[in-house]
Amino acid sequence: MAMNAERGTRNAEQRLAALFRVPTSALRVSLMRASDFDYQLPPELIAQDPLPDRAASRLLVLDRAGSSVRHARFPDFVDLVAPEDVLVLNVSRVIPARLHGMRDALKDSLTVAGGEERGTGGKAELLLVRELPDGTWLAMGHPGGKLKPLRNEYAGIVLSLSKQEQPDTSAYDDPEIVYRVKKHHHAGLIVRSPKLERVEELLTKYAGRFADDFVAVVAPLEKAE
Predict the structure, then answer these.
(1) Does residue 130 fall inside a structural domain?
(2) Domain end marker among 83, 107, 142
(3) Which residue among 87, 118, 142 closes a domain?
């Protein structure tokens, strides 16, 4: 019985090996590493600006029959095209297709530079794929999920040092206030409105009130001798 089990195991291994056997052919597979493409390129040999005469640019010609390489100029290109050749013109242009921004914040809070407040929208990136007939663009977004439509609104901030360690801004209760700065000895509000005039009105009013309620003045530091 042990012999039969051994024979069965050997047969199974042979069948498995047959499934992954590489057939003998003229095709050869060679492994390549990213380091194979490392080479020294002196900065002085990298073109920084196009030539005044773009047609004077150099052309590298590879002879596929003899594998030789020679240098030519772009005007010589017409002499390299045979009557039976097919010429494909690439008229595509490079565009800034990667757009970086911030996702719309949650719960009417705003993303503030340097802040880690919970409820901020986080980073977002769009990759433009192609323009559609109606003038809009097909794009891929990261992270996944549906982005909220663009809102045409204005915003402003009033910010100052505060003489109180934890200034109380609860008396400022206009509905346009969407963020209150939470930092010791700092008083600040961010307002948002679809009307620019309303934002300017609130900032002007708050600037006067801040001067009475919070503003603290710090003496300048003495210069080192």
Answers:
(1) yes
(2) 142
(3) 142
pTM: 0.38
How many independent structural domains does the chain possess?
2
In a domain, 72, yes or no: no
Q: Is residue 81 part of a domain?
A: no
Residue 117 CA to residue 189 CA, distance in Å, equals 14
In the three-class reduction of DSSP (H, G, I as helix; E, B as strand; rest coil), residue 76 is classed as helix
Q: Is the peptide bond before 194 cis (omega within 30 degrees of 0)?
A: no
Query: Which tokens is 47 given?
Result: 């073109």
- For residue 27, the model assigns a pLDDT of 55
The answer to whether position 48 is within a domain reads no
For 5, the enclosing helix (H) or strand (E) is helix 2-19
**In whole angstroms, how far apart are CA 161 and each of 113, 165, 170, 192, 217?**
18, 10, 17, 22, 7
Contacts of 105 (CB under 8 A, 6+ apart): 111, 119, 120, 121
Over residues 77-136, the pLDDT tens digits come to 888 888 888 988 888 777 778 888 777 654 443 443 334 443 456 788 888 888 889 888
Predicted pLDDT of residue 87 = 87
* Residue pair 125/99 in contact by the 8 Å Cβ criterion: yes
* Residue 199 structure tokens: 């934002």
What is the extent of the structural domain holding 136? 98-142
Question: Strand 186-193 and strand 154-161: pairing?
Answer: antiparallel
Ramachandran angles phi, psi of 210, nearest 5°: -60, -35
Hey, what's the torsion of the CAs at 140, 141, 143, 145, to 10 degrees? -100
